[in-house]
Amino acid sequence: MPVTFVLREKKHEVKPGSTLMDSLKKINILPESVIAVKDGEMILQDEILKDGDIIKLVSVISGG
């Protein structure tokens, strides 16, 4: 079962077993541009993703 990323109603799937950072790079999302949330809690970039994980990606907005 793949890992599913959800970003603005779009879904991306990757194979489990990679870190969050590596998986984001595979789907061409800059790790610095999003906050990853799994089961209501923020996860770190070195977390290993498992079968069936659903990761919600929240865009980071900055301004000046």
Architecture overview:
- The protein is mainly β.
- It has one domain (3-59): Ubiquitin-like (UB roll).
- Helices cover 11% and strands 36% of the residues.
- The protein has one helix and five strands.
- It has one helix at residues 20-26; strands at 3-7, 10-14, 34-38, 41-42, 54-59.
- Strands 2-1-5-3-4 form a five-stranded mixed beta sheet, with helices on one face.
- The N and C termini lie far apart (42 Å).
- The relative contact order is 0.31.
- The model has no long low-confidence stretch (mean pLDDT 95).
Write a short abstract of this structure.
By secondary structure, the chain is mainly β.
Essential attributes:
globular, mainly beta, 64 residues, 5-stranded mixed β-sheet, 1 helix
